[in-house]
Amino acid sequence: MAADTRSKLPPPKLPPLRDVIAAHGLQASKALGQNFLLDEQLLDRIAAIPGPLEDQPAFEVGPGPGGLTRAILRAGARLVAVERDRRCLPALSELSEAFPGQFRVISGDAMAVDARAEAGEGAHIIANLPYNVGTALLIGWLSTDWSPLPWWSSLTLMFQMEVAERIVAKPNGDHYGRLAVLSQWRSDARIAMKVHRSAFTPPPKVMSAVVHITPKPAPEGVQLKHLERLTAAAFGQRRKMLRQSLKGLPGALEALEAVGIDPQRRAETVSVEEFVETARVLGRL
């Protein structure tokens, strides 16, 4: 009943983000990879990417002064956020008071926090990720148990444009590599929005993009460890033919032959589906 009542109330009126930053003396930390987004319309658009969030569990990394946090809370999510920068905690505490029972902040390092235990099953992970740990966090979420789906419902994540392009890349392109295969073999990944560097405070040197990833059941008979070994070897020497780059991985050349992949091809020409099938055969050898 409380959730129903809350959903019918208008969102609380909050001070402008610039005022919050000024009041708490929050300057973005280069050491923590921080770049703040202040455009509330843009933040609302990002929070809308996962779809309806009313009474849905959500998880945010590095909320900073709480710009995206506000948008997620306005959308009605039950949000848990992890913030390493203790300077930001008083501003986030004000949001906890403005959205009672809806928002909880954990002071700590997202790399060390058990997101599944804190946010709960089915959580939507939404974050303007700190650039220095974004890829590592993504790989952790993509490598979690899949039975038949992961614990999270979707990933809506801000990355540098170059990283975003690597996540959604297709074969025969310079951006295609291990990250694309890991992101796409049991998920759908797309660039949902491009964000100009001028939208951030301070502006980063590069453009950014929001990537949206939704999981799907993993192909049967394929283990992540075999796919990881295969792609590590193949892309570790991406300019070489597969017969050369894979010769050090036991069974890999036999698996290629069984699948019907020409060993004279290079890794960047091999589709996600072909890597999956080769990993499936490799796991049987």
Automatic annotation (TrEMBL):
Family, according to the entry, reads as follows: Belongs to the class I-like SAM-binding methyltransferase superfamily. rRNA adenine N(6)-methyltransferase family. RsmA subfamily.
**Gene Ontology molecular function terms on file:** methyltransferase activity
HAMAP family recorded? 16SrRNA_methyltr_A
Which segments constitute the Ribosomal RNA adenine methylase transferase N-terminal domain?
42-217
Lineage, top-rank taxon, reads Bacteria
Q: What is this protein called?
A: Ribosomal RNA small subunit methyltransferase A
Reactions catalysed, semicolon-separated, are: adenosine(1518)/adenosine(1519) in 16S rRNA + 4 S-adenosyl-L-methionine = N(6)-dimethyladenosine(1518)/N(6)-dimethyladenosine(1519) in 16S rRNA + 4 S-adenosyl-L-homocysteine + 4 H(+)
Function noted in UniProt? Specifically dimethylates two adjacent adenosines (A1518 and A1519) in the loop of a conserved hairpin near the 3'-end of 16S rRNA in the 30S particle. May play a critical role in biogenesis of 30S subunits.
Q: What is the source species?
A: Sphingobium fuliginis (strain ATCC 27551)
The gene from which this protein is expressed is: rsmA
Enzyme Commission number(s) from the entry: 2.1.1.182
